[in-house]
Every structure is written in structure tokens, then in C-alpha cells.
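ok here's Glycosyl transferase family 28 C-terminal domain-containing protein:
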Amino acid sequence: MAGGTGGHIFPALAIAKELSSRGMDIVWLGSKGGMEEKIVPKHGYPIHCIHSSGLRGKSLFAFIKGVCLLAIGFIQTISLFLKNKPNIVIGMGGYASGVGGIVAKIFFTRLVIHEQNAIPGTTNRLLSRIANKSFQAFDNSFDSKVKAVTVGNPILFQPKTKNYPKSVNNLLVLGGSLGAKKINELIPLIKTPLNIWHQTGDSHIEATKLAYQDSLHLNVHIESFIENMAEAYVWADLVICRAGAMTISELIATKSIAILIPFPYAVDDHQTQNAKKLSDAGAGLLLDESDLDANEVDNILQKMTPVKLELMTNILGKLQTENAEKVIADYLLIPSRSNSN
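and the structure:
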């Protein structure tokens, strides 16, 4: 059960891939109109999308509409459970995950959740009270009463071996699965000549191409979405990106140094907390969007000496954990009698 953003969908796909390789049948629960409707079928998994909605921060009318949609989604999910009779359910976040988690408990189906961010989302925070097992990407995301197990985030691609960069020549720019307008506008203004691989998001690609026309950069490759992330990370000497949970985990897994620019309007400012997991350890650089300036980025680039690059790469290596998707799959495949706590 996962949907809404790439941060929920892609780690769920990594778990689904691992489970499929072990002979498990996968049925996906998502939300109508969500990214998952297009992404999940491309990976070969059947998906059922229900009506769902968030309720937090809504106007009275939107709240009432949301309650009605959730009620419809609740009935749809019951029908799905009766039809498919799942042995175990894993929720990764998103509105549909909340509905599915409640229905799982009604049907006495084992419920497992995984939280990708440093601060749990509303759905996982609520489901952690009824889940049989809770996993978290970062230590202390959940309250200690939850007794969550820290495993990192499942990653869909296999990271490639990468040595520490001697200098910054290749810059990878990521704005998350939907892009980041502020970052897209900033990078073409940097005066340090670089080779750039830039993911813009679908809605920003044309404007970004125009912005690069008069830039000083050596070679620029612009895509709305990068399919081969393993290749992109191994190519990059430095990454400039948002601080979504999956991005943080991919940076650690690939030992990629980054300037992290958290999305300032993220719920509970969770991207800042994600970024601090790296910056506080000396494995990344945190830059608030309010301080976003081409001169500041140029200054940071000038300070990236070979010694600093090697040190940060080594710290990233120490932060690496065992493959989360394998750990979670191991737990999911334990017989139910042993899997009750």
C-alpha cells in the first residue's frame, strides 16, 4: 500500500521486487489520480486504486468531501480484501495506505509499516499504534513506545561502486519526482563551469532549457525524469537536490556528496529533518531555500577540496546499512505465528 509521491512509491516498488523474486504474489493498493496509477503497472504489478483524501488543514467543505471519499474508499478496500484475501499487508504511506491499514486490522491480517522520513507522516503515525511491526529509515523517527526497527530505505536500483571525487566537475541536479522550480532557476546562474545532468520534472523542462542558453556551463544534459539513477549517481562528483527521504537514502547508498535544499513547505518541515541526518554527520551540506543564491553555491563549490571530498565520502560510507528491502522481505516471509511481534 503506497501512493501519492515517489517517496512512498519507489521504496514500495523495491520491496515488491524483492518479494516477487522470492515467489510472492503482489497486489498494490493506491489512490485514484495518484502517481502510482501510471508508475506501478510499468513494473508489472496489478494495482487497485480507491477513492481517498487527506483531511489535515482542509476547509470545512473540503473536510466533509474528504470524509465522504474515505468512506467510499473504505468500502472499495473491503471488497478488495474479500477478493484477494492477502496474507500480509505492508503500508508505506499515503492516504490509501491509511484506509488499507485499518481494513487489514478488521480482517485480522498482519500489518507492517515502513516510514521513510525522519518525521513520520500522519498515516504511519496513526497506523504505528495498530501495526504488528514498524520499520523506520532513521533512528528515533517513531516514538520509542512503537519499538520500530531501523533499516534504512529500500532502493529500487543497485548502486554502482564509486570512488571519492578529486574535484567537482560533474554536477547532478535533482528536484524530486515532481521537480523544483527554485533549483531549476538557480543552477544556470552558477558561474563555476561544470558538466551538468539536470532532472527538471515534467512541468519545468522547457523553461529550464531556456535558462541554460546563456550559461557558462560546459556540457548540459536536461531530462524531465532520469530513469537510470545508478548511472547518474556514479557519474556525479556533487549533487544539488531536495531532501526527500529517498534522495537522502540514495545519497548514502551511492556515497554521493550533496548540497541539500529542503522543500520549505513540506509537511512538518520533514525535509529539513531529513537533511540534518547528513549535515549533522558531516556527510552533506544543508542550504535553506531562503538563502538560495548562485554566489553562495559558487562559494561552496570553491571550498570542496580533495581532502573535504574524501572525508565526506568516507562518512557517507559509514552511514550505509544493509539492504532494507531484503531485511523487510525476510520479516514478511516469516510464518505468521513467529511474526506476531
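+1. The two ends are 20 Å apart (CA to CA).
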